[in-house]
Amino acid sequence: MAKAITSREENYSEWYLDIVKKANLAANSAVRGCMVIKPNGFAIWERMQRQLDDMFKETGHVNAYFPLFIPKSFLSREAEHVEGFAKECAVVTHHRLMNDPNGGGVVVDPSAKLEEELIVRPTSETIIWHTFRDWITSYRDLPLLINQWANVVRWELRTRLFLRTSEFLWQEGHTAHATAEEALEEALKIQEVYATFAEEYMAMPVLRGVKTANERFAGAIDTYTIEALMQDGKALQAGTSHNLGQNFAKAFDVKFSNAENQEEYVWASSWGVSTRLVGGLIMTHSDDEGLVLPPKMAPVQVVIVPIPKPSEELNTKAKELMQELKARGIRVTYDDDDKQRPGFKFAENELKGIPIRLGLGKRDLDKGTIEVARRDEKTKESQPLDGIVDHVANLLEEIQQNLFDRAVRFREENSTHVDTFEEFQAAIDRDIPGFVYAHWDGTTETELKIKELTKATIRCIPNDRVEETGSCILSGKPSAGKVVFAKAY
RNA sequence: CGGGGCAUAGCGCAGUCCGGUUAGCGUGCCUGCUUUGGGAGCAGGAGGCCCCAGGUUCGAAUCCUGGUGCCCCGACCA
């Protein structure tokens, strides 16, 4: 068991890191807080990208690319925005290096100081709105629906692979609209796109909700979020979509002429999901044997293992089978390494999260069967080779659904409703705190006080919450409905 | 930004307190033989600026001074 990973029970944090490292998803790099995404990890991100990109295109968005560097002055145009990001920006101050006159290698050339420093984008609203000013003059230019796939940098003090790194990959959508209603609709539409993606493709159930004033994006009117529950009972903000109102249009003076030839400021939205989703995917489904991937997100869905080792006979059959599976659109590989034994390969393929393993041996060929093992439930059974492609195709769907159902069940089992602060405290203090629904008086003051006392934050006010009168668990003041608290990543 | 830890073979580590031949163990890697339906066994082999710089000493992975880097835990944030 050379590659055994720490169990979740023993140390959840170590378990997560073990999976990331031992499934070869990512590694720490020479740069603090920045990760190297390895081929296995990047393949998952690529699947996310491809699917999301299709969905964005489907909703009328087009891709573009804006610069990595942003003039420092741009960031300060929107007051709340700069306050939100100023503390975590990387700043470029010089543009040239020179040989150290003292022989210490290269040093920054002091004569190459920039007139205006550049910041490395922590998000691109400012540079994009500066550009949109040139793109928009008339209501006929609207709506403008732009997305970009990019890297961003936020100088994080505490990082974890995928979940929070100083540099990360993401997509950021930026849209401009003629009316407030349209901008709001756009923000909500994207929230639903994100939720659909999370649930149908990642098999990760999410709560759809709106952030409190305290938790919203710096510069937004409202932030819509999807929140997932991880296996340790902590919430993960998996995607956000912002209604920016006219805040950035005003800051960057972006106006359009409406049909009556009157000038108005443009209405905006922005939204993003990042490589953090890979972390969420890992923590939603994986177990103590390693990574578990839902079939739709698995770079490899089926692996065929020759037993006990490759032979001409087995290779021929396996390749034939691969062709049939590929023809059905199934991503399949053949593990024809003749050095490792089957047991090793089983463990290795489980660690990597491949949803289905097909074990093919001499006995199978004689009997016309094949061994089908599913990663999610760790069961295996012998199946007739005849009709195996249909069986595998159906099983992939079943696994996808099973993982989602399992995650929904976990979330339900770990969601509680409380009415008093004592109940609240007890719920949050459990080993798996989960989502805790409670009344809140709507003030930032109370929210912060609760956070100080319990470390729990308001994840969202659910879109589908039932309106009911109640009293705040802390202040006792009236509340119009329960909000969702949790400890969060 | 505080607190702690670590830096020695691809990876994981011991050795450092108490300086001393050729720096060691596990794993991985290479070769060969035997094995082979759940992480194989034996034999042989390759692989090291012991984080960097200075100092002490006949002699430094080890002691002293000064750096650098990364990780983990908290506070802040996607």
Which key features would you list for this structure?
RNA-binding, 14 helices, 5-stranded mixed β-sheet, ATP binding, BirA Bifunctional Protein, domain 2, aa-tRNA-synth_II, 489 residues, protein biosynthesis, alpha+beta, Rossmann fold, Translation Initiation Factor IF3, 3 domains, proline-tRNA ligase activity, Pro-tRNA_synth_II, 11-stranded mixed β-sheet
Secondary structure blueprint with pairings:
Blueprint: H1 12-22, E1 26-28, E2 35-37, H2 39-58, E3 62-63, E4 69-71, H3 72-75, H4 79-85, E5 91-94, E6 97-99, E7 106-108, E8 113-120, H5 125-135, E9 144-153, E10 167-177, H6 180-201, E11 207-210, E12 222-229, E13 235-245, H7 247-251, E14 255-257, E15 263-265, E16 267-274, H8 276-285, E17 302-307, H9 312-327, E18 332-334, H10 342-351, E19 356-361, H11 362-367, E20 369-374, E21 379-384, H12 388-413, E22 415-417, H13 421-428, E23 435-439, H14 444-454, E24 457-462, E25 470-471, E26 478-479, E27 482-486
Parallel strand pairs: 3-9, 17-18, 17-19, 22-23
Antiparallel strand pairs: 1-2, 4-8, 5-8, 6-7, 9-10, 10-16, 11-12, 11-24, 12-13, 13-16, 14-15, 19-20, 20-21, 23-27, 24-27, 25-26
Helix pairs in contact: 2-6
The chain binds one RNA strand of 78 nucleotides through residues 1-4, 13, 28-32, 84-85, 87-88, 123, 154, 156-158, 163-164, 168, 170, 217, 236-240, 272-274, 276, 307-309, 340-348, 359, 361-364, 371, 489.
EC number: 6.1.1.15
Keywords: Aminoacyl-tRNA synthetase, ATP-binding, Cytoplasm, Ligase, Nucleotide-binding, Protein biosynthesis
GO molecular function, one term: proline-tRNA ligase activity
